[in-house]
Amino acid sequence: MLRLEGVSKDLGDFALKEVNLRVNRGEYFVLLGPSGAGKTLLLEVVAGIQKPDRGRIYLEGEDVTERPPERRGVAYVPQNYALFPHLNVYENIAYGLRIRKVDRREIDSVVRFLADSLGISHLLHRKPNTLSGGEQQRVAIARALAVKPKILLLDEPFSNLDLNTKLKLIEDIRRWHDEFEFTAIHVTHSFDEAVSLANRVGVMVNGRVEQVGSVFEVFSNPKSVEVARFLGYNVFRCVEVESLGLNYDRGEYVVIRPEDVLISDRGLDATVEYVDFMKFSANLTLNVDGIRLKALATINDVLRWNVRVGSKVKVRIKRYRVIS
Questions:
Q1: Which domains are seen in the chain, by residue range?
Q2: How far apart are the C-alpha atoms of 306 and 282, rounded to whole Å?
Q3: In this structure, are strands 200-205 and 28-32 parallel, antiparallel, or unpaired?
Q4: Under a CB-based contact definition with an 8 Å cutoff, are residues 263 and 324 in contact?
Q5: I need a surface site. Which of 75, 115, 182, 264 has the fewest CB within 10 A?
Q6: What is the pairing mode between strands 74-77 and 151-155?
């Protein structure tokens, strides 16, 4: 459906570097990465807002590298939604159809159908500055879907929303994806968005797409140190962690998931340096012979072993991986 081959773009202080990527028809693809990784720039290249210095972009088998944005069949929803402030909701949704000179009755039918499907029929007369963030997001998505794009590009779509609104929109987008069967690339740094929405994910770091696969594959088996660090793994050079007693005959780095660092009645001596309580778990920082380990513990374990800042505990490492 979408294929990027060796796409590079140099902005001077930052560059996309030989990006190769495939997104399948009907797929909801989530591109993860830290701030400054190049996620937005990659969307702008796909949309035609930025032209790559090297590489080719194919959409449904056609080379669209040189095509302007309006001739690509791509809809881009930026982080700030970019609604037209002087137009009401109806006119915003209808805008793309009107510039394509679609018949007025068809425009009305499409706008009202999408407004009903996205739950914004009661807002059609309102201006964007009178809407909440969640309502503006719905209008922006409706405007994008109105032109029946080949692919929908969503740039940090929930970054400006409160938690309850975000959770509701995640549920709604899953439903809309099933209903309209659109293809999407959704960029974010949020793991829960990826887990909730993605058919597949990619991880982007420093202008490169480092790894692509299912959520389970990528989260459980990072292929590089950069991906492991972004995913929140403990990452050490092997020579730095000899005191942990790990076997690393081959490889340069050892990576350990926080949930695989277990509080136990046996194992390595550790001092608790930090505790961050969540609803059903706690993030811990443990000091083992000068090595700081991030751990994810259940509340039951925290209470059972009396875990608090300054306390002494025993820890064992359930599993780890070595990366060359």
A1: 2-227 (3.40.50.300), 233-323 (2.40.50.100)
A2: 13
A3: parallel
A4: no
A5: 264
A6: parallel
